[in-house]
Amino acid sequence: MKLANRHACEGTVPRITIGQRVYRRADGSRYVSNTWTAQWSYEGKHHYEALQTRRKDAALRKAFSICERIRTGEVKPKKYTLSMAEMQEKYIDLKRGEGRAPKTVQKYEAGLLSLVTWSTTVGRRSATGFTASDFWRYNRWLAENGSSEKTRYDRLILIKQAFKWAHKQKLLAENPLVGVSLSEPAPTEQPCFTPDQVSILLREADPHEAGIYATMAYLGLRIGEVRELRWSDILFDAGEHGVVVIRRGGSAGTTKNRRVRRVPLNPALKPYLATVDRKFERVFTARPSPKHPAGGGPISERRLLLSLKRLCKRCGFDHPDQYKLHTFRHVFASMCARSNVAYKYALTWLGHSDSKILDIYYTMFDDVAGEAMQAIVYPIQPPSKPPSEGQ
Fold first, then answer.
1. Is-above-0.85 flag for pTM?
2. What's the number of CA atoms in the CB half-sphere (13 Å) around residue 358?
3. pLDDT band for position 266 (50/70/90)?
4. pLDDT band at 101 (very low <50, low <70, confident <90, very high)
5. Could you give the C-alpha distances from 193 to 305, 313, 324, in angstroms and in order?
6. Among residues 338, 349, 354, 306, which one has the least CA distance to residue 192?
7. Is the Cα torsion angle 348, 360, 152, 318 positive or negative in sign?
8. Alpha helices of the chain — where are they, by DSSP H?
9. Is the predicted pLDDT of residue 262 greater than 70, yes or no?
10. 308: which residues sit within 8 A by CB, 6+ positions away?
């Protein structure tokens, strides 16, 4: 084996030389590897070991590690051959086995598949040779291909988790990203209905859909939670005005955070619920269809979203396509802020455990912020007496 840029490691016993391996292409030309390799002789035999690093200082440290290994009589280190595709497959299998929600697994799968695509494009299919420099090159590749800052952050965090797991499972000799840190991007500004817009939507909406919109606007529920809401979950006799128990709505058959929560029933919602037929177990159902000719099927999020966008356009809202079903959740959080609802209650009602997530939705209205600013008043002190003559 021929090495270029050879460097003898002083103080190593046996004497170890590091260098960069020279390869021969099919056309006879040669090229030099950008990673380091160690070479030494011991007990009459020549030995070589790929050090899997581009940094010379790291290669020198590994050379001394080889000496220590030889001194203690250890066998040659295990050869790691984990590819990016294998790591992706094993990590996704792990998440499925943990019972993660299907949407979460899909997100992880897409994120790691993106890394596999990049590694194939640049010819770095092996996870064993991945470095922190590769990590940032992948980040730049994502940016060049139009990924937002938030998407890049999510995927980079996922990659750090995957490499940490692979190292713990002894699929990699070391975790190349152990010293890499990321700064979380600022939350993306979300569209938010005003109170007047909600009033207009509930007035103009089809009666079949008005109850769904009102439930999201008055209780802050996700569309999945509204879809899976049962009449047995609405305790009209509990508390002063009733309580709604949120048990389902996530992709795993539970809530998103797998916790059951109780939300006080807003009395303004009761008139909308009174118009809903109770012949089905679900509170809200889809209209009759070939699959469900008598009705009772689950509501379609996609169809409801299209209907909402058409309604926003019909009501004359600016940029009607920006609004989503989740926007009702945003306005509910904003109304909590407008009404000075304590964070603890707002977090509980919305089903969040982290106040940073709630901050995304806490959009303060300009008029409320102005009123709050006017409340900041300092006492006015009488003018001080001028000093008397002679002082």
1. no
2. 22
3. very high
4. confident
5. 15, 13, 10
6. 338
7. positive
8. 56-71, 84-97, 102-122, 132-144, 149-168, 195-204, 207-219, 223-227, 270-274, 301-314, 327-338, 343-350, 355-361, 366-374
9. yes
10. 201, 209, 213, 323, 324, 325
